[in-house]
């Protein structure tokens, strides 16, 4: 949990902001929210989308690699071992809620939101999974780690 002394009054939490980014439906909404978070709260953020089967996304490292690349390319974190380590743990924590109680052949479409205030990082994943179009499930996961 964030230290109340370091949270600006009225500032949205990193976790909620990451979830909001993952839930945006258009690039325009996504960009607008990222600009707002940066200008109003000095909160850096990034978004990525990807799809595939659980085996393709999780076991090959595609999900983690995509999140790391997004974090570097958007300036969410610098290339520092400690911060990369925290990002990976937050990503794994978020993915635990995504890849649970499902067949490894299920297909996924995921959108991932990242936010940081330089002390903490939040990773939110929202998406859908299914083995068949009539069996689609919405899923959401959240990871939060100290940098």
Automatic annotation (TrEMBL):
It comes from the Bacteria. InterPro entries: Regulatory_HutP, Regulatory_HutP_sf. It holds the Pfam family HutP. Keywords: Activator, RNA-binding, Transcription, Transcription regulation. One of its GO terms (molecular function) is RNA binding. SUPFAM superfamilies: Hut operon positive regulatory protein HutP. Homohexamer. Antiterminator that binds to cis-acting regulatory sequences on the mRNA in the presence of histidine, thereby suppressing transcription termination and activating the hut operon for histidine utilization. Belongs to the HutP family. This is Hut operon positive regulatory protein. It comes from Desulfosporosinus metallidurans.
